Amino acid sequence: MKYKGYSANIEYSEEDRCLVGHIAGITDIVGFHADTVAELQVAFEEAVEDYLETCQKLNKPPQKPYSGNLRLRIPPDIHVAIAEAAEVSGKSLDQWAAETFTYAVSVQSKTQAPES
User: Fold this and answer.
1) pTM over 0.90, yes/no
2) CB atoms within 10 A of CB 44
3) Hey, is 113 helix, strand or coil?
4) Of 9, 13, 21, 69, which sits most exposed with the smallest number of CB within 10 A?
């Protein structure tokens, strides 16, 4: 879901038996929920509007969602190595990097998960 440049991260809550979402790509926590996809779209749009209004009332600029564009400065030998790894895997450098970053974040979040 997208609205006014913001995207939604959505999951199903087994416990609450509903769809639960939050605005993705910002560090402020803005959540919403609904029983159907149509209701969730409305709830998402209301959450974005509420967020923007709250920021205005607090005289605080709203966070902009991340664009997905990332510029990195890395040593040339590493650049060559990742370009070769991407080519060998049959992927573009962007695809390879996105998959590699996703894997790294997944591994890191598992190692930082609180013990039960």
Assistant:
1) no
2) 25
3) coil
4) 69
